[in-house]
Amino acid sequence: MFSLYTDAATQPQTGLSAGGILIIQDHQQTQLKLPLTATTNHTAEFEIARLGFEHLLTLTDQPESTTVLFYTDSQIVSDSVAKRYAKHYQLWVDALLAVQDPFQLVLTQWVPERENRGAHTLANQALHSAEDVK
């Protein structure tokens, strides 16, 4: 079983986005900070969630017998996954659902930002790094 926490950060003035991924398995943490192509916060949240699941696929050779507890502080990501629909973000929803599909079970839980601090901190660090490069 994996616990996956994701968060995105976007600088509205520049359109730069970055994300953080925190994966916990057997009391071991994997932390990733990634620049994103998305230019709005909502699309960045979908993108980093998809990238989180893509990374999980590299960590297990048997996703069909793997459970993932997915935590996000993005209400739109959480709601859209539950409904399998988002009016303005359906392509992003479909991409996220497709990368979740190989797993036996994915339980999505919305959490307040204060309970997603690990991924939030990673996302902000990645955004600051991207701003320094630009």
Automatic annotation (TrEMBL):
Listed GO MF terms: nucleic acid binding; RNA-directed DNA polymerase activity; RNA-DNA hybrid ribonuclease activity
Keywords: Nucleotidyltransferase, RNA-directed DNA polymerase, Transferase
InterPro entries assigned: RNaseH-like_sf, RNaseH_domain, RNaseH_sf
Domain RNase H type-1 as annotated: residue spans: 1-128
Name this protein carries in UniProt: Reverse transcriptase-like protein
Source organism (scientific name): Levilactobacillus suantsaiihabitans
